[in-house]
Amino acid sequence: MQAFAYQTPATVADAVKAAGADNAKLMAGGQSLLGSMKLDLAAPDAIVDLGAIAELKGIKVDAKSVTIGAMTTHAAVAASAEVKKAIPALAELAGKIGDRQVRNRGTIGGSLANNDPAACYPAATLGLGATVTTDRRSIPADQFFKGLYETALAEGEIITSVSFPIPEKAGWQKFNQPASRFSIVGVFVSKGPQGVRVAVTGAGAGVMRVKALEDKLAASWSAAACNGVKVSAEGLSTDLHGSAEYRAALIPVLAGRAVAAS
C-alpha cells in the first residue's frame, strides 16, 4: 500500500475544499477505491473520507418520493421499513448487493459516483427516473450516466442525496455472478410519474434503457408483454461469464420476471 494523507471532514463544505487538492480522491464506502489502490490502479496522494459527514446520511419519505442521503449504506436502505413500503423493489435491490460486508460499508452515493457497469444502484436510479443531487446542482438520471465508470460529475463534485419518485409499480430481477454477486444482467422496471422505464445493468459498458421493452410494457404492463421482444447484442459485453448474445437474450426474460414481481 502506498503512502497517502487521510482526511475526515465533518461537513460537505470542508469535503469540497479538501477534494480540491491535487490528486485527492473522495471515499464513500471504499469498496471499490481501496481494491483499486491495492492493485495499483489508483494512487491518490490524499483520501477524503466522507464517512463522518452526518448530513449525508439518512432516508426521508414523503407522498411523492424517497430521498436517500449519499452516505446511507445499502444495508440501511434494505432494512428501512419506509423504503419497503414506498418502493419495495428498491429495498430488495439494496438487500441483494454484494455480501454483508459490502452492504454494511458500501453506500448509494459511492455506487453511483463509481458507476461500475455491473452495479445494481444505477439500474434503480435510471429505472425510476431518480434525481441525483450534488453540492452544486441536481442531475436527472437520464443525464447522469455517461459510460464505463463515467458520470456527469465534475472533478471534486460530491453527491449529497438521491431522490426516487414513488412509482405505481416497480420490480427488480438480477442474474448474478455467484462469486462477486455483480450482475451478469440486472433489470429494473417501473411504471410511474415518468411513464414506463426499463433499465439494464451488467449487459454493456454502462446502465442503459431498453425502449423496445418500455413500449411493450406501456401498452400492457404484464410479464407476457416481454415475450418475444428481441434485444440487439450489438454493443453488449462478452466475457467468461456470458456472450453478448446470451446477455441480450436474458434482458427480456428478466424484465418479464421483474414485472411479475412488481
Quick structural overview:
The protein is α+β, with helices and mostly antiparallel strands. The chain has 11 helices and 14 strands.
Walk me through this protein's architecture.
This protein has helices at residues 12-19, 33-38, 74-79, 81-86, 88-95, 100-105, 108-114, 121-127, 141-144, 211-219, 244-261; strands spanning 5-7, 24-27, 46-49, 59-61, 65-69, 131-134, 138-140, 145-147, 150-151, 159-165, 169-176, 183-192, 195-201, 208-209. It is α+β, with helices and mostly antiparallel strands. The longest helix has 18 residues, at 244-261.
Overall 3D geometry?
globular
The major β-sheet equals: 5 strands, antiparallel
Strand content: 15-25%
Task: Work out the helix count.
Answer: 11
Structural class: alpha+beta
Give average pLDDT, whole number: 95
Helices and strands, in order, run as: EHEHEEEHHHHHHEEHEEEEEEEHH
Describe the strand arrangement of the main beta sheet, using strand numbers. Answer: 4-5-10-6-7
Task: Record the SSE blueprint.
Blueprint: E1 5-7, H1 12-19, E2 24-27, H2 33-38, E3 46-49, E4 59-61, E5 65-69, H3 74-79, H4 81-86, H5 88-95, H6 100-105, H7 108-114, H8 121-127, E6 131-134, E7 138-140, H9 141-144, E8 145-147, E9 150-151, E10 159-165, E11 169-176, E12 183-192, E13 195-201, E14 208-209, H10 211-219, H11 244-261
Parallel strand pairs: 1-3, 2-3
Antiparallel strand pairs: 4-5, 5-10, 6-7, 6-10, 8-9, 11-12, 12-13, 13-14
